[in-house]
Amino acid sequence: MSCDIGLYGLAVMGQNFALNMASHGFKVCVGNRSQSKVELTVQRAKEEGDLPIVGSSDPQDFVSQLSKPRKVILLVMAGKPVDETIEKLSEYLEEGDVIVDGGNEWFHNTIRRSKELEPKGIHFLGMGISGGEEGARNGPSLMPGGPRAAYDLLEPIITKCAAQVHDGPCTGYIGPVGSGNYVKMIHNGIEYGDMQLIAEVYDVLRNVLKLSNKEMAEVFEEWNRSPLNSYLIEITAKILAKEDDETGSGYVIDYILDKTGMKGTGRWTIQEAAERSVAAPTMAASLDSRYLSARKDERVKASGVLKGPEMTSAEIPIHKGQLLDDLKWALWASKVCSYAQGLATIKAASDDMNWDVNLSECCRMWKGGCIIRAIILQKIQDAYTRDKNLPNLLLDPVIAADINNCTAGWRRAVVVAIGYGIATPALSASLNYFDSYRRESLPANLTQAQRDFFGGHTFERTDKDGVFHTAWTDAHKSIGDINERK
Ligand code: NDP
Fold first, then answer.
1. Do 430 and 451 reside in the same domain of the chain?
2. Average pLDDT, stretch 347-372?
3. 167 and 261: one domain?
């Protein structure tokens, strides 16, 4: 019997997603560069209830086992391995077949591959997958972008295998090719922001309030029953409560080296935000924090020469209950700003590339299965349902009212952290984003004046239309009016 779908690339994600599809009754043919993973996957399928998974010995055998039009999901390492795999498989694929790359791929690569496959009539989709190993097995968030007709062939399978929330499966058509990877990339940028914000709050809890790991775990557990409810808050509570089996004393968290790893999607997000002229300071602060964390040796040296404040609670009075509450709302408001930046970046790209991405739908797809799943996404989804062209999330009246209610505590929390010398780059960046965005007038008039002074870059005036240049000094007068020179 021929298979409903093929999955090529059987590391963590591929193996688990193949088992997921098979659990939903789809017959899956699996393939991998090294044969041992094929055998392992077939073995796991047997052990997990005789699931309908068949192995293949090489690309030709893999393709020959698929029913037409063939549907192939790739889950190999992003970059060159994807090109190599496409080259091998497409030799045996035919017009009308569909390849879906489920990796974390740079969206321009996906667009390029789709063009390369066009002459053969093979459709190509880029589908962001989030949820890690557990999500891939039990229901991830799936963000596919590509030709609509090809998506329609895939839809019956992916809507069943994605995570399910009250208003549907955590997947849906994102838009043309590249858009699915783009939305996944921004998802990861937001994930960086969420993780950094939580880390900063943890830093204040342990270094200002001097809470123990157990006490912090309880705080995060309690916050998980509030509007902060999210997967990342939930796992933070579990992480902080985990005792160390290795040594039999203390907590695992205290043995982990403070150097953060990364694979690149956060950097791409910031590059893209800059490319689209979108301010993304919270996500940028998260990326910077990872870079600084990686320079451990330098930081160790710096800790011997650079001094922080020697604050005591007498200088900045701390009221535990108040600070806990302030941190909670600072975290909530900062997270909203971070989502606002991510969604504004998607909107800018979608406008530039005519993708017509529905931001409300993106939020709906992120409500389950993925790493940034959080109760707050319902509110954000509702905001974009009210107005799909909202220029910025903060302009939604419900979100605006909620965030306005947070500002007093948010400011107090940041002031305390700064006073104690605890770096809170993402919490502060969010607050500064909010304080810049909400102001009718910014000091940018001075910046424009300086640009005009040293470079004759001209400026607009508040009292009349046009482009102006001022002869700021006698030296400028001798150079002459820029408009005359033009
Ligand atoms: P990896 O990214 O670790 O890639 C390993 C897989 O790629 C193996 O199947 C390997 O085959 C194959 N591979 C490597 N080089 C080649 C090559 N030149 N030709 C053919 N196959 C090759 O696997 P993951 O499962 O972690 O991730 C798969 C994709 O999903 C990646 O794009 C990743 O970024 C993305 N992703 C991963 C998540 C995670 O939590 N791990 C979460 C969300 C997305 P072999 O066994 O022969 O070495």
1. no
2. 98
3. no
Task: Spell 369-385 as b/e; 16+ CB within 10 A means b.
Answer: bbbbbbebbebbbebbe
Q: Could you tell me where the DSSP H helices lie in 224-358?
A: 231-241, 265-275, 281-294, 296-305, 320-353
Residue type, 25: G
- Three-class DSSP category at 134: helix
* Same-domain pairing of 200 and 274: yes
Domain count, the chain: 3
Please indicate whether residue 94 is annotated as part of the active site.
Answer: no
Query: Which residue in 191, 200, 272, 361 is the catalytic one?
Result: 191
Q: Cβ–Cβ contacts within 10 Å for residue 304, how many?
A: 7
Are 219 and 275 within one domain?
yes
Locate the ligand 1 atom nearest the alpha carbon of residue 34 and give its number.
Answer: 47
CATH number for 57: 3.40.50.720
Residue 285: Cβ within 10 Å count: 27
The band of 1, judged by pLDDT with boundaries at 50, 70 and 90, is: low
Tens digit of each residue's pLDDT (9 = 90 or more) over 129-141:
999 999 999 999 9
pLDDT tens digits along 383-424? 999 999 999 999 999 999 999 999 999 999 999 999 999 999
366 with 449, same domain: the answer is no
Same domain assignment for residues 124 and 244: no
> What pLDDT, on the 0 to 100 scale, is given for residue 262?
82
CB 192 within 8 A of CB 230: no
Establish whether 328 is a catalytic residue. no
Peptide bond into 69 cis (omega under 30): yes
Ligand 1 pocket residue status of 103, Cβ below 6 Å: yes
Indicate yes or no: pTM above 0.90. Answer: yes
77 touches ligand 1 (CB under 6 Å): yes
pLDDT more than 90, % of the chain: 94
The pLDDT score that the predictor gives to residue 485 is 46
Domain assignment of residue 450, given as a range? 444-485
Same domain for 412 and 448 = no
pLDDT exceeds 70 at position 242: yes
Helix spans in 130-264 (H): 132-138, 148-161, 179-207, 213-223, 231-241
Residues 6+ apart with CB under 8 A from 460: 448, 466, 467, 468
Residues with Cβ within 8 Å of 153's Cβ and at least 6 positions away in sequence, in order, are 69, 71, 98
- 197: annotated binding-site residue? no
Complex ipTM above 0.90? yes
| Beta-sheet strand order (sheet of 28-31) | 53-55, 28-31, 5-8, 71-74, 98-101, 123-130, 141-145
**Residue range 371-387, pLDDT digits in tens:** 999 999 999 999 999 99
Do 410 and 376 fall into the same domain?
yes
